[in-house]
């Protein structure tokens, strides 16, 4: 790694807006990795700014550190990831986000009516789930989990 390709932990923290301890946490979890200079100081690739930016965005979208780590593990170590590398991660995350959006949309649209949970506390439940028939399909809010209502 050339000297101008690397930055200190303090510079990385400053550029990403996270604390030095957060950078250490991300390093401990394998989200970024450092080399050591002759004086034993951590040195990070400039491209680690983008990795940490990705971590911050992914966390805001509800992804866990483990899920983020799994995605970042597909990036090359020791070189700056290319646009193609990032596009592969984007496509995988996009698929998960599309599934989450579909689930949230379904929940938003059905939450005020019968959700197939078996409580039968709403008048509409007698229409959509008479006698709690949907319980035969399994536990939980069956209509929110994707089961379709069947006509009586």
What is shown here, in short?
With 152 residues, the chain is mainly alpha-helical. The chain is built from 6 helices and 3 strands.
- CATH class label of the largest domain: Mainly Alpha
How many helical elements?
A: 6
- List low-confidence stretches: none
Number of strands: 3
What does this entry look like structurally?
With 152 residues, this protein is mainly α. It is built from 6 helices and 3 strands; from the N terminus they run E-H-H-E-E-H-H-H-H. The protein has helices at residues 9-16, 20-28, 48-60, 65-72, 83-110, 125-128, and strands at 6-8, 35-36, 42-45. Strands 1-3-2 form a 3-stranded antiparallel β-sheet. A hairpin with a 5-residue loop joins strand 2 (35-36) and strand 3. The longest helix is centred in the middle third of the chain and has 28 residues, at 83-110. GO terms for molecular function: 2 iron, 2 sulfur cluster binding; DNA binding; DNA-binding transcription factor activity. Keywords: 2Fe-2S, DNA-binding, Iron, Iron-sulfur, Metal-binding. It comes from Maricaulis salignorans. This is Transcriptional regulator, MerR family.
Output the keywords.
single chain, 152 residues, mainly alpha, 46% helix, 6% strand
Task: Indicate the topology.
Layout: E1 6-8, H1 9-16, H2 20-28, E2 35-36, E3 42-45, H3 48-60, H4 65-72, H5 83-110, H6 125-128
Antiparallel strand pairs: 1-3, 2-3
Helix pairs in contact: 1-2
């Amino acid at each position: 790694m050339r000297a101008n390709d690397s930055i200190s932990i303090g510079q990385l923290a400053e550029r990403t807006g996270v604390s030095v301890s957060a950078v250490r946490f991300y390093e401990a979890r394998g989200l970024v990795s450092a080399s050591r200079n002759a004086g034993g100081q951590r040195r990070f690739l400039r491209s680690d700014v983008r990795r940490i930016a990705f971590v911050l965005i992914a966390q805001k979208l509800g992804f866990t550190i483990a899920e983020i780590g799994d995605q970042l593990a597909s990036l090359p170590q020791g070189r700056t990831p290319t646009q193609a590398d990032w596009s592969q991660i984007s496509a995988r995350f996009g698929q998960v986000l599309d599934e989450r959006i579909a689930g949230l949309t379904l929940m938003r649209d059905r939450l005020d009516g019968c959700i197939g949970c078996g409580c039968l506390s709403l008048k509409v439940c007698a229409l959509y789930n008479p006698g709690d028939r949907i319980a035969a399909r399994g536990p939980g809010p069956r209509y929110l989990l994707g089961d379709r209502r069947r006509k009586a």
